[in-house]
Amino acid sequence: MPAYQLKIRRFDPESAEPAYWQDFDVDLPPERSVLDGILQVKDREDASIAIRCSCRAAICGSCGVRINGRSALACNTRIGEAAERGRDGVITVEPMGNMPVVKDLVTDMEAVHWKKVRRVVPWLVPAEEPPENQEYIVPAEAMLDVTQAMACIHCGVCVSACLSLEVDPDFIGPAALAKAYRFVGDPRDGEHETRLKDLAEDPHGIYDCTHCFACVEVCPKDVAPMNQIMRLRRRATGDYEIKDDNNGYGHEKAFVMLVEKYGTLHEAQLLPRSFGDGSLVKGQLRPSGAKQLTRELPTAFRGLKSGKVTPRKALLHPKLPDQKQVRRIFHEIESHDERIELNLYIVGEMGEETE
Amino acid sequence: MKLAYWPGCVSRGFTPELHGSVAKVAPLLDLDLVELDRANCCGAGVIAEHNQELADTLNARTFAMAQRVDGAAGMMNICSTCQGSQSECQERLDASSDYRGEVNKHLGDEGLSYQAGGEWWNKNFLWILAEEIGFDTLRERVQRPLTGLRIAPFYGCYIVRPSRRLGFDEHPGRDSYLGELIEALGGEAVEYAGARKCCGFPVITMNRVTSLRQAGRHLADAIDAGADCLVTPCPLCHLNLDLQQPAAQKFVERDLGIPVLHLPQMVGLALGLEPKELGMGKHVVSTGDVQRKIAELAAA
Predict the structure, then answer these.
(1) Distances in Å between the alpha carbon of A119 and those of A88, A96, A116, A170, A244?
(2) A342 Cβ under 8 Å from any chain B Cβ
(3) CA-based angle A112:A115:A118, to the nearest 5?
(4) CA geometry: angle B227, A87, A217, nearest 5 deg
(5) Residue A354 pLDDT > 70, yes or no?
(6) Interchain CB distance below 8 Å, B47 and A256
(7) Residue A238 CA from chain centroid, whole number
(8) Per-residue model confidence as pLDDT tens digits over A285-300
(9) pTM, whole model, 2 decimals?
């Protein structure tokens, strides 16, 4: 039986001692889980190790930890693979990040995760009363869009990995925002616009996600929370034209419009247009835009001074040789009534090619 | 090796030193680059957020142009963000012939069509160095080993996540190429917390505090780990780590002042090019200390 080394981070708030690392040896076949390893240590060496777990099958979402620095469910991570990734074969196990530690590997899910989930009104607010003595029937196709968000088991692994939360603890975060999309994408819900306005206007809402894919990488259920956040943004800007004070609307409008106009990004105009809901004039003239531009002046000055940016480049941006083709593509696609999208979560990554 | 070459927007915009240094370095690596000067912006995830079909079509257009370059082994990009955005679109285009057909309809007017399957690929310069040229060949070509230079790798999110889409299953080394490359060029790769974290650039207009706290924290971590400089394959990361570095200081409440090199600049230095040829004067944070170390290496 192969032997593995586990390095577990221990912490007991009642001991008044700082956290420390403790090494243990376990023997298990490589296909068994890191959770099996921890439970073996508990069984054979130290029953005081605290870990929360139940189903051992990636269903209950209890055993979120960080294994070799990577957030994951301990029951869903093979011990052999973890050892291959660990430095010198040693598997480090520590509690999830971005939340307080209760003891050893147990974190306070209430303090961060559940608090944030409640923040997004995680229940259906029906658009109308259901028909008398009947259920509220919705066509199955209409729910396809939210199946991915519905797969969430609230394990908190994405919250642990979130790089935005790491610097802004007030960020609503990937799990709660994915939950928000579950209702924004639900045709029965009557509060789509209110929900979106709330999440777009909150400085720690949908525009505080840095698009780093950390949550997508670690989610054990392929919920891809970041993709749900991008869907929230698409609904907010595209469907409801919510002009928020965080420049989320402006940034998207400006970016898309500049590529439509020039083919490549005219960077010098991105900032002022972002500050003006996409409009260059508005960005410079309205007080909030002018204030933000003034704040960026030192950066602009440093760019000019270093020679990175020339005044000519800041003012003039060449169009692509056949820009009319790019513009035609924009026109053709944006004039569709319906969005044509391919959701790989639903069709499978290999699509119909493998069928 | 002949390659279709997509330089991206930022390398020709606010980081011209990146575009210039690739032009200097490519011939030394026998890379024959055919620049796709009619291709469009990758959308950087923003156009995909706005309209998925639009982003996929725009990138299919770029891929189709690259596929038409006679004798090219594949397509090269020099930006982590281009790599990630384009890989995302390519994944969808390759997954469904129906969807691809819809997308290709918009390219017919230009006589273009993206062909899925086969061996065609789109690789960042970092992946080209590791997988097509190889670190052994690179070692042989080093004229000026970067001995004693402590370099902190900074990958950029889009080139490391999601690892499955980015082909890490077939190429597990993609998670560590930058460190290996630094060592192959004779430098010392610095380990620190930020190497694979987010520079914060995508939210610089939307949440300046989050954005610059991220940039500042990684720079500070690299300094604390004893780095002389950072190196990145992503020009957008470069904007937040270099151009915004003086502003980021305020958000981490300490002095920073650590130079950030573009990947081809670091390679160029090791291949014997002079800092000036690589545009190293066009940085906001002075690369003077790195240049001095390089000059000392030459003298030794």
Answers:
(1) 43, 21, 5, 11, 19
(2) yes
(3) 145
(4) 85
(5) no
(6) yes
(7) 20
(8) 899 999 999 999 999 9
(9) 0.96
